[in-house]
Amino acid sequence: MPAFSFDALRRRPDIEAPNLYAVDAADRLILDEAAGTLSRSAAGEVAVIGDSHGALTLGAIALHRARDVRVFQDPLVAERALDANAAELGLAGFRHCDGDGDSGLPGADTLAGARVVLLKLPKSLDALAAYAAAIARHAAPDVVVYAGGMVKHMSLAMNSVLADAVGPVTVSLARQKARVLTATAAATSAHLAAVGETAAARAWDRDAGLWVCAYGGAFAGARLDIGTRFLLGVLGDAKPDAASALDLGCGTGVLAAALAVGRPGLRVTATDQSAAAVASARATASANGVADRVRVVRADAGDALQDGSFDLIVLNPPFHAGTSVHAAAGLKLIEAAGRLLAPDGELWTVFNSHLGYQPALRGSIGVTRQIARNSKFTVTASTRR
Hints:
By secondary structure, this protein is α/β, with parallel strands linked by helices. It is built from 13 helices and 18 strands. Strand 14 and strand 15 form a beta hairpin. The protein is globular and about 65 Å long. The mean pLDDT is 92.
């Protein structure tokens, strides 16, 4: 077995910066808390959910001899970072698992027969509830779940979510501002009967005239975030002669659905790196009757799409990298838009005004004009040179 060091792990192709890390104290504590159970596990009995860049998966393999580890990661860049770190360290013994059915959430492929689950706690309680329900449905009757995170991002509600779906929860002592919740299965027939199949949350937005659907931790859930709502207010003016449009970083796919509903002749694509977002966007398109005209693709900043192929791109960029506030995620999407736009195509962007994306928009796209502004958000239109 090659030598293993957490310090050797990197984030690439995810955003790399001095204040962003490929491993944190929660990863280390999860592996330490699970050490005894991992050492007794057989091949194929370990599942990992939410590994950000490979620390949990590769640590379980290198430090605790786990074999045939099944891994579910929502972000595409997390899958690629795990692969890159494994190749760099010469480690094998894991496989990626796709989301279950239409939901983009972990299912039987990830969890069937799993007796140990290592879980990096997500930001969203909805995502945690979906993961916990999947574990209860598919894992072994005696599964033990080690779910860890940084204390500042944890809440007491997480204990209840895990306990309700899986079984009794114990809480570790804090170490380096991290904590682990250990849930031990209580697999009675009555308990399992109470754990229903995961369905998309669905809500009608009267102002937008659209259904919004969301699985797991898709951004904003089944509602419009205020930035998207602001952009929707001017979307009818966006490149009226466009024949093709892209919702870049689509989240739940509201912008893509709005374009398809409002412009029946428009070819619409939506893309996001999140498996839950992709599933949510497909559900939103279906709920609004435009599934046949909205193509949804999982890709990192549209890297699976053809250069110069869109007349119109709409973008509500994120300003977080994981749990850290960071503009690089938005800048990456703006650069991608420059590649994906056809000549004379337009990028319509909504962003928190204080972020000041205008220089990046002018540099990556071209002439940029302000379309609308309120107390919090700015909408701009940038024309591809």
